[in-house]
Amino acid sequence: MARKKEYIEEEVIEKAMELFWRNGYEATSVRMLEKEMGINQFSIYSSFGNKKGVFLKSLACYRAKAKVELIDKLKNSSGGIQSIKEYFYDFINFSKDSTRTKKGCLITNTVNELGEKADTEIMSNIISFATNVKTLFIEKLESNKLKTPEMITKQANYLMVSLQGLSVASKMFDQKQLDDFIESTFENL
After folding, report:
1. Residue 1 pLDDT greater than 50, yes or no
2. What is the pTM of this model?
3. For residue 163, is it within any domain?
4. Domain with 130 in it: what CATH number?
5. Is residue 4 in a domain?
6. pLDDT tens-digit map of 70-110
7. Which domain does 98 fall in, by range?
8. Counted domains in the chain
């Protein structure tokens, strides 16, 4: 007979997500996950399969948090380019934890850490998330009827690369520098 879980999965995954977000995938061991999540190794393997399984659930948790705190606001906004600019500012706040530690973006951090050696399932999750954000950027850019489809695609690509740069910069630069970056990014759109 299967044992009853003595933990709430969403809570332990939230803890694991925070650990991966702070330390990265490679530097996070199963022992560290045990301690952070407050469950034993057997429970980790039984519930999630392995460290990768915990990480994939952590990415899903991150995506859900981003959806509530960032994506939905952008999706429901009717401000065109200004909506995207607000997303950039909101992202800065999202990338800090409750102690105001600068963590950047879990997605960007993972790409920077794993690069070409990233597992295909992990990369598929990351690409799906980025594609969703880019699609919303395109929708907001299309509100300007003077822009051609080619210009919109080019600007959406520019904004995606800028957002990745902002993610890395948010881990080391002060708010004034980040504000200047965001303002400069949107001057010519």
Report:
1. no
2. 0.89
3. yes
4. 1.10.357.10
5. no
6. 999 999 999 999 999 999 999 998 887 655 567 889 999 99
7. 9-187
8. 1
